[in-house]
Task: inverse folding
């Protein structure tokens, strides 16, 4: 009898506590924020989170969303297992109805799978793998460009800008691809092959490598053997630096090197390589040396970043997540704070902004797969120690310059 | 042909790096019989120390060896005295768990202290090369290669010519008998662990000019060092050097002529095959020596 009474008290207790937290939660809109802030993805994961956090703080200062303050339940997801279990915890234990993140595509694929199973909206702001929106989930939205947009921009640049400059016909320009072989690099590799074919450009070699390698001399030597004009690279932070150093040591002679976001956009890349980084091109999410008429809100973002973190932004990942979170909060404002998946998705489908009207210069238009098709990638170049937008003309602040990279 | 020579040269230079990072491990392995999974973390500590000396005090990484080596000697002695020695008589498995624990603790401590950023130092010679008949040779890698040779030579002399060295070899061969002969085994272990750590420290300092340091870098080096050491024959100094060169060459050749993504697969397959045929490693003396000996 006593045991039964005890059980009863326990059950009531749990119900009561549940009820109480329910009331307390009514004061704010709680969103799960999943980012890798430890482990090997920590640097860019943390940078991504900072952007989202700035958007949240700025919005709260202006009165929040639908009259409520926005709160992030931030969790660290250093690997795929953590992404899956933390997403489960946020949904089942914390009772969250909206998740966002993630910077890394593999982490996003794992976490959004859990959200889809529970019928909860997953709003991705940094993972670019095409598969994320390719699975047909009605609960998934992505604010940032997907991988294919990067490859399209690179091939276009090789064909329309490099080929005429070096006196070759568009289909004579030799392109090679060097990519790290995780989900990030591999998804891009397929796109480059497809875009090269579509653009009528010769892809002379495709070289995968492991991002944790301590030596990339064999990659460089293979390139020397294949003699490309343009090398497209897909790297994380450390391997981008290693490639640059060894390309210089082994005197790799090419006309242009175009990175694909990630490592080649980091200030640490430029600091480590110094003059050797000069002239390296990169296609990426919007960076900070960009035509400000095309990116309203960028200045305020940078000021706020300095105020909150006492340093300038470390890469454009924060800006992408700042823009993404702003789009997310705009959508929440329009649903009146409702996180119901059906309603949220409907609102998103009806929401449109023209290119050049967000801090990243992106527009907003979500297609049936949940992809923002007006999110765009630009080509940038390291010039005088700064990563400057050079192509296409809209967001560009100066014209691109062709010179052998990693040679100084 | 020029490309092939360049591939060989690059492979040998890389092999020198691998040899350098394995020397300390093989010494500790051979004498103390500890499978030290925190080996790479000692190297990581040395690299951060070198980084700090260079950034904050403008001490050249090659010069900083005279500070880093003694510092790591002390760290190594500390690890042996306070972590390994208390559990020395427990099972081998227990010792592995302890070093794995140390590896995780040090890695996370570094993440907390230094954050996850990749750090590199700027030196005038970081990317300088020698050019010989169209073949480029990276200067800092060449220096690392030469240091690996010098370290090995020094260690070899120490083992053959000094009393401490003789004692080390005696302990490696039979701990109990060595103790009966009056060798103070625990003190010798302290010295050996310190010496092995100091060598690992030197490796860290020499690698920094052409690579980078981040909190999880140790795990990569630990795995590599184990492959090199086991392939070369446990406790065999010359074997560690040749094993390093062997792995470097395989990596370079398979990277260029097969695929860089498969180079780890290639050398692990060779690693497994070698151990199937010669369990004592490529340069081990004969059957049964996989368990004893220090050469």
Result:
């Amino acid at each position: 009898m006593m045991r039964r009474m005890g059980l009863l008290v326990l059950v009531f207790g749990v119900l009561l506590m549940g009820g109480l937290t329910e009331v307390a939660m009514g004061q704010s809109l709680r969103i799960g924020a999943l980012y890798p802030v430890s482990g090997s993805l920590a640097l860019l994961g943390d940078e991504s989170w900072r952007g989202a956090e700035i958007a949240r703080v700025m919005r709260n200062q202006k009165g929040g969303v639908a009259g409520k303050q926005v709160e992030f339940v931030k969790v660290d997801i250093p690997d795929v297992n953590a992404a899956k279990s933390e997403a489960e915890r946020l949904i089942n234990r914390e009772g969250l109805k909206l998740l966002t993140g993630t910077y890394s595509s593999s982490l996003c694929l794992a976490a959004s799978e859990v959200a889809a199973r529970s019928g909860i909206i997953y709003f991705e702001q940094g993972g670019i793998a095409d598969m994320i929106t390719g699975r047909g989930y009605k609960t998934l939205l992505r604010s940032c460009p997907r991988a294919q947009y990067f490859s399209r921009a690179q091939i276009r640049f090789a064909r329309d800008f490099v080929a005429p400059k070096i006196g070759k016909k568009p289909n004579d320009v030799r392109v090679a691809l060097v990519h790290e072989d995780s989900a990030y690099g591999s998804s891009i590799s397929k796109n480059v092959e497809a875009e090269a074919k579509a653009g009528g450009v010769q892809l002379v070699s495709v070289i995968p490598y492991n991002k944790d390698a301590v030596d990339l001399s064999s990659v460089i030597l293979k390139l020397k053997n294949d003699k490309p004009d343009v090398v497209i690279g897909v790297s994380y932070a450390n391997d981008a630096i290693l490639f640059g150093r060894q390309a210089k040591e082994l005197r790799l002679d090419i006309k242009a090197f175009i990175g694909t976001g990630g490592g080649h956009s980091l200030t640490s890349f430029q600091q480590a390589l110094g003059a050797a980084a000069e002239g390296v091109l990169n296609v990426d999410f919007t960076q900070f040396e960009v035509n400000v008429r095309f990116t309203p809100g960028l200045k305020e973002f940078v000021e706020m970043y300095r105020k909150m973190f006492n340093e300038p932004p470390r890469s454009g990942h924060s800006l992408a997540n700042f823009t993404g979170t702003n789009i997310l909060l705009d959508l929440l404002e329009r649903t009146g704070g409702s996180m119901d998946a059906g309603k949220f998705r409907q609102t998103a489908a009806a929401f449109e902004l023209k290119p050049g009207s967000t801090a990243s210069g992106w527009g907003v238009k979500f297609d049936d797969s949940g992809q923002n098709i007006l999110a765009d990638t630009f080509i940038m170049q390291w010039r005088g120690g700064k990563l400057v937008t050079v192509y296409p003309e809209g967001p560009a602040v100066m014209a691109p310059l062709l010179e052998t990279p990693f040679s100084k | 042909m020029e490309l092939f020579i360049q591939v060989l040269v690059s492979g040998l230079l890389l092999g020198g790096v691998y040899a350098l990072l394995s020397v300390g491990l093989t010494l500790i392995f051979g004498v103390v019989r500890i499978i030290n999974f925190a080996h790479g973390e000692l190297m990581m500590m040395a690299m951060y120390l070198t980084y700090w000396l260079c950034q904050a005090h403008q001490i050249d990484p090659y010069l900083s060896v005279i500070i880093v080596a003694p510092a790591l000697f002390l760290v190594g002695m500390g690890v042996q005295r306070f972590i390994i020695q208390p559990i020395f008589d427990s099972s081998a498995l227990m010792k592995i768990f302890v070093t794995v624990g140390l590896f995780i603790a040090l890695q996370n401590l570094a993440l907390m202290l230094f954050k996850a950023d990749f750090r590199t130092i700027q030196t005038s010679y970081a990317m300088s090369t020698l050019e010989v008949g169209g073949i480029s040779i990276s200067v800092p890698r060449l220096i690392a290669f030469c240091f690996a040779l010098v370290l090995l030579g020094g260690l070899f002399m120490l083992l053959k010519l000094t009393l401490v060295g003789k004692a080390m070899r005696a302990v490696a061969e039979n701990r109990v008998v060595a103790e009966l002969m009056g060798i103070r085994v625990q003190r010798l272990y302290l010295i050996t662990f310190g010496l092995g750590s100091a060598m690992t420290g030197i490796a860290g300092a020499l690698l920094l000019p052409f690579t980078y340091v981040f909190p999880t870098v140790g795990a990569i080096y630990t795995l590599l060092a184990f492959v090199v050491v086991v392939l070369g024959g446990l406790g065999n100094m010359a074997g560690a050097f040749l094993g390093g060169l062997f792995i470097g060459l395989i990596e370079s050749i398979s990277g260029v002529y097969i695929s860089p993504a498969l180079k780890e697969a290639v050398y692990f397959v060779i690693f497994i095959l070698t151990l199937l045929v010669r369990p004592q490693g490529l340069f081990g003396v004969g059957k049964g020596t996989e368990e004893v000996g220090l050469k």
Notes: Residues 10-145+297-365 of chain A form a domain with the Rossmann fold fold (CATH 3.40.50.2300). The two ends of chain A are 84 Å apart (CA to CA). Residues 15-25 of chain A have pLDDT under 50 and may be disordered. Residues 105 and 127 of chain A are 4 Å apart (CA to CA).
